[in-house]
Amino acid sequence: MSAFPKSLSPWRALALGTALAFSGGCEPEPARESSPPTDTTPTEAAEPALHPERRGIGALTLPPRGPSALAISVDPRSSLTVTDTTILTNFTFQRVMNQLVAQSGVAGLTSLRLFQEWWDTANPAPGLGLGGPHCNDSIFAGQPALNTFPYLCPRQEGVQATTNPFISPGTNADEYVPAALVNRFDLAPASGSDCGEYRIVFVKRSGMTNPGNRNLIIFEAVLPNPNPALGLNGCRPVTDLWAKLTSLPNPTDRANLLNDFYFNGLPGFMPVVHIDNYGNRTGSVATGQVRSNQFMQGPWTLREFKLRLQICSSTTPCALRFIPVTVKTNPGGTLFSPASTHPQAPAFQGPAFPAEVPTLAVNDINLFNLNVANVFNSGQSNAQGPENDYLAAFGPGPSPFHTNIQTQLTAAGSTLTPQNIVARAEALSCAGCHQLSNGANLGGGIVWPPSAGFVHVTEQLEPGPFGTRFRISPALTTTFLPHRKAVLETFLNSSCGDATCQPWETHAACSADCP
């Protein structure tokens, strides 16, 4: 894959402060990168990490829609979050894992071995002796004990290292069932270096009936733009496909389009399901991740993994593994305590977190934001108990930390309180978004919308237009999907010459709209 130089639009540089580099041009089914990672625990970037749910054009204030705004409109349950069981039938967990194994080129590797190695990371060393890291290793992601924040070890999820999720489909309690295909074009950067994220949500079958044996995993692929010279317009084949799903009446036709997109790739695009899109792409080019929402024991936690290919000789791949990494934009809870003795607390409470006050103070539930350096992130986001309750750790004050936040609020002319700012940071953590912030007053008239009980895509079914479909959260239905719909429709209905300079348009690309 060839590399392209960085190119930042002024809009994105102003709004996000950090840019993703341009990805290389890809053939429809590209080979593995010529220089894949040689270490199964690569160091993650120390610079501020963009929020996994709030970045790209979805984090920008879009210009008002013009008269053509409704020329193309989309149905969120058809073109943004697809949970219809009849469409998801062929998106099996084994099919995804088989494709990743095949792409790795690792001799003798099977989907079962990869799965069992993955969940052996939740066991203490030596675990089952399958290779790869374990939860009590001193180093994860190149950082001691995931920045030395709590990391529960062992976890009950580790028993999956002895199970087979691929046998007896339909009755196997350990089977993972596809529950959602998710279009996150709103995460695409204005520069067009990638086309956003495209996700597959799987739920453990046992969780459909047993609330004490739940586990959800989400494959979150960042899809490169094969025509970065076109900017975000290079992604139009992708957005056109998702928009087309709204108008197709036949679920089989919808399923076929999505099948080709995920497993084969649109013409000129790599397939969504590719090892490079889940963490194996290194350097300055964007990649994705796999995240988990773990309920097989308390406390219920959310974790993050990168899929990494290891090269043992000059060209021979010898291992493909899911490596535990920090959970992005999830600062360790102790950092919010004015009395914290964590070594990163002074830097966090001094310049780092107060510098985020202006973006956290934006009074729009879809646009207030937080980006923190990875050194502050924890290896887990705890949805139960005090570990991730930032507001409780922060306390009523006074303290120098309170003062630092108030100073920034005063400079910004905001009437929010330091407690409001910390409450907003908590809502943007995984634990907050999934449970802790349900119904929380975030100041400025903003109340955080409720999840569906620790999840946003549930294991429960409801009637849908094509039969049954998996139920989604009120937060998605009432708040987040309408915003993503507006972002996608704004892009679909914009073009050079429409007299509106969109965030992804530049003077060089469209001087008529952007003088």
SS field, number of helical segments: 14
Largest sheet: 8 strands, antiparallel
Q: Estimate the helix proportion, in percent.
A: 25-40%
Dominant shape: globular
Number of strands: 14
Overall pLDDT score: 89
List keywords for this structure.
8-stranded antiparallel beta sheet; two-stranded antiparallel sheet; 515 residues; alpha+beta
SSE blueprint and pairings:
Blueprint: H1 10-16, E1 48-49, H2 76-79, E2 81-82, H3 85-88, H4 93-104, H5 111-120, E3 139-140, E4 143-144, E5 176-184, E6 194-204, E7 214-224, H6 236-247, H7 251-264, E8 289-295, E9 301-311, E10 317-325, H8 345-352, H9 357-360, E11 372-373, E12 381-382, H10 390-394, H11 400-412, H12 418-428, H13 430-436, E13 457-464, E14 467-472, H14 474-492
Helix pairs in contact: 6-7, 12-13
Characterization of the model:
- The protein has 515 residues and is of the alpha+beta class.
- The chain starts with 9 loop residues before the first helix and ends in a 23-residue tail after the last helix.
- α12 packs across α13.
- The longest helix is centred in the C-terminal third of the chain and has 19 residues.
- Strands 2, 5, 6, 7, 8, 9, 10 and 12 form an eight-stranded antiparallel sheet that branches. The chain has a two-stranded antiparallel sheet with strand order 1-11.
Question: What does this entry show, briefly?
Answer:
With 515 residues, the protein is α+β, with helices and mostly antiparallel strands. The chain is built from 14 helices and 14 strands. It is globular.
